[in-house]
Amino acid sequence: MIFFGHIQKILIIFIGIIISGCFSPTQEMGGEKRTNRPDQESWDIIITMTNEGMVRAIVHSGYLKKFQQKSFIFLEDSVTVDFFDHSEIHTTHLTSKSAEINEKNNFMRAIQSVVVKSDSGITLFTDTLSWNHSKQRIFTDDPVQVVTERQDTLYGVGFESDTEMKHWKILKPSGVTDRMINE
Predict the structure, then answer these.
(1) How many domains is the chain partitioned into structurally?
(2) Which of 42, 53, 138, 170 has the greatest CB tally within 10 Å of its CB?
């Protein structure tokens, strides 16, 4: 009888070890996988992006999700970005509903209801806009509307510019104008 009690305890421990080995460390109760969850979450955040110690952009967002392994940040809830030139003078203001940042190369993509207003008077409207931090270029392949400082409204598909929006172009312009070429 004593011998049977020891076998029963060993059997219970053995079964417990087998059962605990069946659960993945990335799985939580209820079957939800932890791998799809962010490593960090923050609210009302400010990110300062620099290049050689100089402020190039300041990003504000209502909510941030960070995925450490992927080096990826997702921003949502009123994303705003203020861009600065090489002298740290404000040049441009961007707003969007959300944004993604690849931390490996500081590549950012603004998503949904993107509006970019330059201090020089140019305003861009589009659905998505990418920013290449190392080249200080913004661009999109989506349809765009550009309102110039003279209140001209231009349309097209695709856009490229410096972050100051001093040197910009619409890749596939469309529309009609009554303005003379020399104006």
Answers:
(1) 1
(2) 138
